[in-house]
Specification:
Layout (H helix, E strand, L loop, with lengths): L20 E5 L3 H13 L6 E5 L2 H11 L4 E5 L7 H11 L6 E6 L4 H9 L2 E6 L4 H10 L5
Parallel strand pairs: 1-2, 1-3, 3-4, 4-5
């Protein structure tokens, strides 16, 4: 049985803090629950998890609740995708110092390089490999 979504935060390697607010953006509810479980297993617990089904909902949550410490987003979603969401957050500074991780079902070295330039910490492939995801999130978990 899937566990409910919670929250987390990640900053840059070397400057870790436990996340207080985590935003998980994916059009699949199952993927959102899977991502939350990976974050919790990686040791990023105690945070508040908030869900959004696309970039439009994510921006609404950010407007309503303020910046998040950590955001995990899919790229391909109806309405507003992850690239548009990240670009808009960077342009408006509405996202604050959010640590961003991307999950995508399509592979593109050019897109991944652009995402890194936009400040994305890591790009993970779908289908989601739980162990790889846990290892990636564990590298960024809070140790303060």
């Amino acid at each position: 049985m899937a566990r409910p979504i919670s929250t987390i935060q990640v900053l840059a390697p070397g400057r870790y803090k436990m996340a207080k607010n985590v935003l998980i953006v994916d059009d699949s509810r199952t993927s959102r629950m899977f991502i939350q479980q990976a974050l919790e297993i990686a040791g990023l617990s105690g945070a508040t998890f908030v869900e959004a089904a696309n970039g439009i909902e994510a921006l609404s949550q950010i407007q309503k609740l303020g910046p998040f410490h950590l955001m995990v987003t899919d790229i391909n979603m109806p309405g507003k995708g992850g690239m548009e969401l990240i670009s808009e957050l960077n342009e408006s500074k509405a996202g604050g110092d959010v640590a961003i991780f991307v999950i995508s079902s399509t592979q593109s070295t050019i897109r991944d390089a652009a995402l890194k330039e936009m400040g994305v910490r890591a790009v993970l492939e779908k289908p989601i490999n739980m162990q790889k995801m846990i290892a990636t999130f564990a590298e960024f978990k809070g140790v303060a």
